[in-house]
C-alpha cells in the first residue's frame, strides 16, 4: 500500500483544544500536540473519521459525522493526570471523498501508514462501518489481529452496498479477518437476527452476550480472552450503543439494556494496558440526539481511560 501524504488530513479546529491557561490545572488540551509537525515524535495518534453515510444506508439515526468534533470538545477539557509524559498527537480527520467506499479506501491507507510507522492509534468515528478500513489498514501494516467488537450488534449483515452493519462480514468475506479471531462482546439477542447468529456459529466466531459477560464480570471475561490468545496484535472496536441508553442516549441505535459506563471505561483501560493493542476505535456517537452531553462525555471518559492504559 503506497504511503499517503498525511498533510492531506483535515486539521482540527483550534477552539476544540481547551485550556484554562493555568499551570495549576493543566488539561488534556494543553498536553496534546497538533498536526503533522508533531507526528514523528508521537507514540499515540488520534484520528477522526467524521462520516455517517454508512448509518444512513443501514436505516440508523444520522448525526455520527458530528461526533469527532463533539468528542474532542469534551475530551480536551479533561484533566491531564498521568498523561503529561505521553507523546500524543491529534492529526485531524480523514478528508471527505465522493463516496463512502472511496473514503474507506482513503482512511484505510492513513491507518496503515500510521501503524506501519510504529504508532498506536485512537480513531474517532463516525459510524461503525469505520471498523472495516480500521481493521483492514491495521492488518495491512501489522498482520493478523485479534478483533473485539464491543457492541449490541454483530455487524455481519449481508447487505449491499456496505453500511454500518456490514464491516465484519466484509472483513471475514475478504479473508482479512479469521472468524476465530472475531469476538463480539456485549451483544443483545433482541438486537440481532438468528440468521447471523447461525452464520457466526458456523464460521467459528465468538459471541459473548452482556448477560454472559456479567456472569463472570465484564472485564474479567475480556481479560481471560486476551490472556488465552497468542495473538501479537489486538484491535478494539468500541461501539457506543453497547452502553445503556440512560448513560448513552446520543447514539445511532439506543440500547435499553446495555453495559454500564464504568464497565465500558474499564474495558478501555484494559485495552490500552495490553501492549499488543495497536488500534482502538470509538463509533456511533450521535450528538444531535445527545442529552446534556452525556454520551459525548462518556465517550471522552472512555478515551481518557484508554490513554491512561497507553501511558501506564
In summary, what is this structure?
36% of the residues lie in helices and 15% in strands. It contains eleven helices and nine strands. It is of the alpha/beta class and 312 residues long.
CATH architectural category: 3-Layer(aba) Sandwich
Which secondary-structure class do the elements indicate?
A: alpha/beta
Please report the distance between the alpha carbons of the first and last residues.
32 Å
- The CATH superfamily turns out to be Ureohydrolase domain
Shape: globular
Number of helices: 11
| Structural domain count | 1
Strand order of the largest sheet: 1-3-2-4-9-8-5-6-7
What is the share of helical residues?
A: 25-40%
Low-confidence stretches: none
Mean pLDDT: 97
Q: Which CATH C-level class is it?
A: Alpha Beta
The CATH topology is given as: Arginase, Chain A
Order of helices and strands: HEEHHEHEHEHEHEHHEHEH
The main sheet comes to: 9 strands, parallel
**Proportion of residues in extended strands:** 15-25%
State Rg. 18 Å
Number of strands: 9
Amino acid at each position: 500500500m503506497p504511503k499517503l501524504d498525511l498533510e492531506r488530513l483535515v486539521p482540527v479546529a483550534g477552539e476544540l483544544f481547551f485550556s484554562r491557561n493555568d499551570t495549576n490545572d493543566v488539561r488534556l488540551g494543553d498536553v496534546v500536540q497538533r498536526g503533522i509537525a508533531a507526528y514523528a515524535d508521537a507514540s499515540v495518534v488520534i484520528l477522526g473519521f467524521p462520516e455517517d453515510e454508512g448509518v444512513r444506508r443501514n436505516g440508523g439515526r444520522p448525526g455520527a459525522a458530528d461526533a469527532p468534533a463533539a468528542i474532542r470538545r469534551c475530551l480536551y477539557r479533561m484533566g491531564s493526570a498521568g498523561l503529561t509524559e505521553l507523546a500524543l498527537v491529534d492529526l485531524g480527520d480523514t478528508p471527505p471523498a465522493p463516496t463512502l467506499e472511496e473514503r474507506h479506501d482513503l482512511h484505510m491507507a492513513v491507518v496503515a501508514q500510521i501503524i506501519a510507522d510504529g504508532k498506536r492509534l485512537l480513531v474517532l468515528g463516525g459510524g461503525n462501518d469505520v471498523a472495516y478500513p480500521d481493521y483492514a489498514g491495521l492488518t495491512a501494516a501489522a498482520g493478523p489481529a485479534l478483533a473485539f467488537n464491543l457492541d449490541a450488534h454483530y455487524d455481519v449483515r449481508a447487505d449491499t452496498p456496505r453500511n454500518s452493519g456490514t464491516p465484519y462480514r466484509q472483513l471475514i468475506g475478504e479473508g482479512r479477518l479469521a472468524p476465530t479471531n472475531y469476538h463480539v462482546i456485549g451483544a443483545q439477542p433482541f438486537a440481532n437476527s438468528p440468521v447471523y447468529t447461525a452464520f457466526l456459529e458456523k464460521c467459528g466466531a465468538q459471541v459473548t452476550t452482556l448477560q454472559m459477560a456479567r456472569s463472570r464480570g465484564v472485564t474479567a471475561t475480556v481479560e481471560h480472552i486476551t490472556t488465552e490468545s497468542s495473538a501479537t496484535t489486538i484491535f478494539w472496536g468500541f461501539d457506543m450503543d453497547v452502553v445503556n441508553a440512560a448513560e448513552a442516549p446520543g447514539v445511532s441505535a439506543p440500547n435499553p439494556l446495555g453495559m454500564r459506563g464504568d464497565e465500558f471505561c474499564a474495558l478501555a483501560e484494559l485495552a490500552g494496558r495490553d501492549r499488543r493493542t495497536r488500534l482502538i476505535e470509538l463509533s456511533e456517537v450521535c450528538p444531535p440526539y445527545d442529552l446534556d452531553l452525556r454520551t459525548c462525555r462518556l465517550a471522552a471518559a472512555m478515551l481518557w481511560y484508554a490513554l491512561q492504559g497507553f501511558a501506564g
